[in-house]
Amino acid sequence: MKQVLALLVILGGLPAWSAAGLTADEIIQRVDDNQVFTTQSFTATMKITKGKRTLTKNFYGYGKKDGQKSFMEFTNPEDKGVKYLKLEDEMWIYFPDADDVLKISGHMLRQGMMGSDLSYEDMLENESIEERYSAKRLEDQVVGGRPCYVVELTARKPEVTYEKQVIIVDQGWFLPVKIELYARGGRLLKNMTQTNVKKINDRWVPFEIGIQDTRKRNSLTTMKFEKISFDVGVPKRAFTKGYLKR
Amino acid sequence: MLRRFGVLLIFLGSLIPSVGQAGIDLSGAIRNDTVLLAQGSDTLFFDILESQLVLQRKTNDWRFYSDLRVFLYAGDIQEIGPEIVEGVDFITLRILRGFIRYYTEYGDFTLGKTYINLGIPSVFNPFELDRDVNVTDLSYTKEGILALTYEVPFAPLSGGKFYVSPEADQSEVSAGMDLYTNLGSFDLGLVAARTGRDQNLAGVYFKGDAEVELQGAYALRADDEFSKYRFEAMVGADYSFFEGEWLLGAQFYYNGNENEEAQGNTTNGFAQLGYASFSDRYYIYANLMYAPDGFFQFRLDGFVNLEDYSALVVHTLSWVLADGLNLSLQWMIPTGVGDTQYSREVIGKYVILARVEAKL
Prior knowledge:
The complex is a heterodimer of chains A (246) and B (360). Chain A has 246 residues and is an alpha+beta fold. Chain A has a single domain (16-245), classed as outer membrane lipoprotein receptor (LolB), chain A, CATH 2.50.20.10. Chain A contains 4 helices and 13 strands. Chain A has a 13-stranded antiparallel beta sheet. The N and C termini of chain A lie far apart (69 Å). Chain B has one domain: Beta Barrel (Porin). Chain B has an 18-stranded antiparallel beta barrel. Chain B is globular and about 55 Å long. The interface between A and B is large, with 45 and 58 residues.
């Protein structure tokens, strides 16, 4: 009996031991691998909260090539018909009243999308974490009763939006459950959480994302995904400027 | 007036139940502008209630879209300006859009009352067919024209737009094209159009990033014999401060109307209920905006006529009270002397406008 127990301990402990032995780069590689997809579709609700006031926005969209291409359309009354097209690191917006498409550039990129804590620059992050950041492993933590790696990321390129990130990665899901985003000079700019994690086609996906811009008092943006599907068909020409007018 | 309003309500009331059954999507907005004009010791007041009704149907093959506006006026509006006095109609209906867009393998066709968007929208876009600007709301919907348009993609970010319209000066046909593409971080394009007899234009435009946002446009206007011509150009830049909370933008406009009489001093921004045009030779538009979050915004817009140095300064405070419900206050100050374009003598000492807008 003792021998069986010992074997179970060894077998049970083996994956944890081998995972615990991962380097920071290996952890980041696993996180990047978890985000790879060919096509994706989603419907979501975004709540923007400031103090006691809340704005609710509904949208749906498609993604392609790990999010390098994406299309989004808002369906709530306030923003009905507003559409976004993202192609690599550029974005365009369609205004239904004007029936016209505008490039989002320069000064608009740092603004919160639809007044949220999520900026357009946040949405334009394309490359994998490994390409943008060098990683250093910090001491592990337990978050929500689950063991997590803690990795500090330092920007490899000056054009990266955040100079430093600290990501807390669930050891079983290889998904960041908490992210701290820092500006140059070490100032904490944003806190992100990824919760309500579900498994879709062998990958772990957060169905709820919280973003808090520390520069805005009492501000919080929460995105809840009602549906996420991978490797689905997307409309032909969905990722073209012309499609925005349809 | 009440009778007309009643007829309108009955019409709209009968329309709405059938809308859902036909798979038509119904949305809209209500906007109320309360305006207080202070002209010396005389204080004028008027109120405009604007109702927007949008009917839309989208399928995989085609799309129908219509935007109907109903305006109700109240107050001393006969004092405000000749446009309103002549068109005294306390209820006004306008169809800003009403089109069917049909998608094919080779491009999208649009037929009906539609907005012809040549170039990149801006205060001074030289390719804009409707040149008046609503200074109380720069993004206010421009009225479309009856036209047939065809938009064909060449690549995800390149394509061509073509239009032909019976709405043209001197009963001629208006037609034009806009070929657009993307180069690096810049959108750019080439426009050519004929908007009526002796009204031909061609030019180029761009918008993109080089640390700051840059945009520009250059157009040549000529008569049919090319004996009279003039240039128009605009260049602008935008920059943000404090992580995007503060935005500063400026645009310069040159209207080389050597062969035409300057049409300035005809604009009465408030008499035409907030619309301004830019028909003198040089203008600057500058904008400062503070938007700390999605619930509050302050902006300062200034329009300066560099020919007579008159200016119009518009301060706007906006609050989002709840989902779809906005309140804004505007304080518009004209400066200038005599009959200069934006002088106080022409358009009043100042105007305060309170706007409540609800989206449905």
